[in-house]
Structures are given as C-alpha cells and as structure tokens.
Amino acid sequence: MDWGVLKGKMIRAARLESGLYREVEADDGANQEAFAVVALASLAQGVSLANAGLFGEAGGLKGFVIGVLGGVTSWLFWALIIYLIGVRLLKHRSDMNVLLRCLGFASAPGVLKVFALIPGIAIPLQFGIAVWMLATFIVAVRQALGVDTRRAVLVSALGFLLYLAIFLLLMSMGVAI
Q1: Which single residue of 39, 56, 169, 177 has CA 20 to 30 Å from 30?
Q2: Does the pLDDT at position 139 exceed 70?
Q3: Using an 8 Å Cβ cutoff, are 163 and 173 in contact?
C-alpha cells in the first residue's frame, strides 16, 4: 500500500470530494485502503479516549481499547445498518463491499481525534469532528447507494436512529459497541 497515495485519498475524502467516493466505489482493490483509514481513525480515537478520563480516573488502557475496538466495530455496524435500510428496505443498488469502502474513507476526519490530547480542546474538537464525519458519511452513502443528497440524508438519519436505539439498548445491558 502506498501511504502517500492513501494520504491524498484521505484528504480528498475529508474535503467531501464526491469524485473520490466514486473512485473508491468502483475500485474493488480499495478494501485494504478503506480498512487502513478506519484503523488509523480508530487508533486516534483510542488515544483520545485513553487521555480523556471518560473511563476511570485517566482513561488509560481501557479507554484506548474501547476507542480502537469501538471505531472498527462502529464502521462494520454502520455499513450493515446502511445496507439493511438502503439496499434491503429501500431497494437501492449497492453491496456490502462498496459500503465498507465508501464508509471507510468517510472515517478520514477521525484521524484528527488524536489532537484531543491538547488540553482544553478535546470536547469541541470531538464535536467538530463528529459533525465533519456526518458530512463525509452522507457523501459516502450518496455515492455508495447512487442516490441524491436528500435520500442519502434520509437513509443516514434512519440509520442513525436505529444505531442509537441499538446502542442505548446494549448500554442498558452493560455492553458497549
């Protein structure tokens, strides 16, 4: 894998360049790159949570592991939800590999979560990145499903509500994803 090329693709994904998502959608060989983007974003999330103090006194190893595993698991889970809603329920054309690739690249802004280590900016930074990733996610869904922006927002919103409901149910049972 050419890290320079991957870096360029990540920047284009973060800039919401629909052409990048079109390329990724058509490139069956981009699965490894998409996973690399998710892995980098998940590592950044792990570093952020390890130092955020959200899991005990200092976060530490538990926060890091939750951040990394949560990032990868969320990517897989989101792709499954969008597949079920967009392809199975609403009958748009796509497949799981396309969704995984497009949503993987939509995780690109997540690598900036590592900057949450800077005192005093963690919460606004996390919020800003979440909003940015929502935008990249909608562009990715739009391309992966071949729909207009309005439909991509609808599918994403329905997906988010389902994701949130399942997440809250699992949290009430003591399980986090």
Answers
A1: 177
A2: yes
A3: no
